[in-house]
Amino acid sequence: MTDLNSLKYTAEHEWIALDGDVATVGITDYAADKLGDVVFVELPAVDSGVSGGDVCGEIESTKSVGELYAPLDGDVVAVNDAVVDDPSLVNSDPFGAGWLIKLKVDAAAVAELLDRDAYVALTGGDA
Fold first, then answer.
1. Which domain, by its residues, includes 21?
2. CATH number of residue 89's parent domain
3. Which residues carry this modification: N6-lipoyllysine (predicted)?
4. 60 inside domain
5. How confident is the model at residue 126 (pLDDT cuts 50, 70, 90)?
């Protein structure tokens, strides 16, 4: 199990795990639960650049279509093809096998994101 307190979060319900200057990004279990059963995931191309706050992908569920926002400026160094092939991983293991993209980022920028307590407060304690 991932240590949820070691992650950073965004107000758009993404989690970020930093390893050096590579940030692994996914959506939180709270977001996955609100979306319902995920049936389609579209991710940005490897070697493309993304800008923090901009839409960089799409997550469709049986309930709605959601947008994936880049949590930070960075370059896409990997995408999770397993999630594209089996979108249900976003629901079944959002903090593990359901990760979405890896970005090369300025590690200092990650510190500005929400910690676990702030994210739980944002969701009204439901996260």
1. 4-106
2. 2.40.50.100
3. 63
4. yes
5. confident
